[in-house]
Amino acid sequence: MRGKGAAALAGLLGTALVLTACGGGSSSGSGSDGSSGRGPFTFVTGKDNSGTMPYIADEWNKAHPDEKVTIKQQSDSADQQLSDLQQHFQSKDANYDVVTVDVVWTAEFAAKGWLVPLKGDDAIDQSALLPATVTAATYNGTQYAAPYASDGGLLYYRKDLVSKAPTTWDEIIADCKGKTTSGTIKGSKPACYAGQLAKYEGLTVNAAEAINAAGGTIVSDDGKSATVDTPQATTGLDFLVNGFKQGYIPKEALGFKETESLNAFAAGQLMFMRNWPYAAAILSGDSSKVADKFGIAPLPGPDGHGASSLGGHSVAISQYSNTKASALDFLKFMQSDAVQRNDLTVGTLAPVTSALYTDAALVKKFPYLPDLLKSIQTAVPRPVTPFYPAVTTAIQTNAYAALQGSTSTADALKSMAAAINSAAAGG
Ligand code: GLC
């Protein structure tokens, strides 16, 4: 459509912009980058397993009676959260004002124009934050989302059953001998080890961690070509594959996402578990059978500590929101000391603000904070590409086939590499 039609459309859009700028919101807007419009809005976020949302809603609503937030919780599976957001953005839903963005979705959402860039008058001072969290919210040099909770993998272990945390994979296996059941969860003794090994985003995280810990990589630095068909990557993935073959990972773990692995550990059914920091609060709670029996340590690797995949979430403003000015204030509120502190103390979520990791009172209460900080600072980002959904599918599908034993580790990595290359090329 060119010529007259385009001019007419431009005219219409111009009118619409003027209308939004003048009316719509209950009070004046702010910002020159489209962040106008004030009023009640909706915040769409994953299931609140950590119980931190009531504080957020109460504190915000008390201070903003004309701009109240309604919190809409999605499922607790990363994949389902993503498809819900994709559907609502595709239909230009004006009611998904503020959304939670997993670090691996930034590129796709930004490239599709779904998020308001946080630049110009909409820029937020991010100097108090861990740099990795800001990088993960940035695409092509522009920040599109405000980091809100970081995430780094940790090893949860039964300190009543082992005298010190293992630092290598071999130590995990040795620690389990004689103390654990093999191949399955049976009830009398715990099984040895599990992470998140169902076929979904969590498997990409766990497979990448195993591969990175063994010195392998998945894609080149520019994110465009696969680098995963190597002996190092084979050694890494084999830690998980051999777990099923040799019985140190119970077969039930093929269906484990975060919640299932956490439930098994909380029920005393696992000696070691890889999980995110949020697990600590739940494991210390009333429904846990191991509340005073677990310790937290860095993730092990083949020859000493491994490296986590960088996880975490930001909050971002939808381009289709009519309350962008309120939303921008809400993003700043989510990074405030009060919210960051409450998220840590109530939900053991990993703060994005650096200072909390060295706050003496907090370190006393959560002695693993320095390990968590290190986990985040040394974490390896997953591939950054607008085609991430296809790239992660390539990783999950092939890793899962190897875990199930339907293909060898080497063949799985070969076909993973081929699938990544075609996904990263956009096809
Ligand atoms: C956690 C991480 C997120 C990751 C997801 C996988 O929520 O913060 O980055 O994608 O787990 O399940």
Report what the structure shows.
The structure is a single chain. With about 425 residues, the protein is an alpha/beta fold. It has two domains: about 5-150 and about 310-380, D-Maltodextrin-Binding Protein, domain 2 (3-Layer(aba) Sandwich); about 155-305 and about 385-425, Periplasmic binding protein-like II (D-Maltodextrin-Binding Protein, domain 2), CATH 3.40.190.10. It has helices at about 5-20, 55-65, 80-90, 105-110, 130-135, 170-175, 200-215, 230-245, 260-265, 280-285, 325-335, 335-345, 360-365, 370-375, 390-405, 410-425; strands at about 40-45, 70-75, 100, 140, 140-145, 145-150, 155-160, 190-195, 270-275, 295, 300, 305, 310-315. The strands form four sheets. A five-stranded mixed beta sheet has the order 2-1-3-13-6. A hairpin with a 2-residue loop joins strand 11 (about 300) and strand 12 (about 305). Helix 7 packs across helix 8 (about 230-245) and helix 8 (about 230-245) crosses helix 15. The longest helix has 19 residues, at about 5-20. It is globular. Residues about 1-30 have low confidence and may be disordered. The structure holds alpha-D-glucopyranose. Alpha-D-glucopyranose binds next to helix 7 and strand 13.
What's the oligomerization state? single chain
The third-level CATH topology of the largest domain is D-Maltodextrin-Binding Protein, domain 2
- Bound ions, cofactors and other small molecules, one mention each: alpha-D-glucopyranose
Number of strands: 13
Task: Name the CATH class of the largest domain.
Answer: Alpha Beta
Strand order, sheet with most strands: 2-1-3-13-6
Which structural class is indicated by helix and strand composition?
alpha/beta
Helix content: 40-55%
Query: Helix and strand string, N-terminal first?
Result: HEHEHEHHEEEEHEHHHEHEEEEHHHHHH
Intertermini distance: 27 Å
Shape: globular
Low-confidence stretches: 1-32
Q: In percent, how much strand structure appears in the residues? A: 5-15%
CATH superfamily of the largest domain: Periplasmic binding protein-like II
Which CATH architecture of the largest domain is right?
Answer: 3-Layer(aba) Sandwich
Radius of gyration: 23 Å
Number of helices: 16
Biggest sheet statistics: 5 strands, mixed
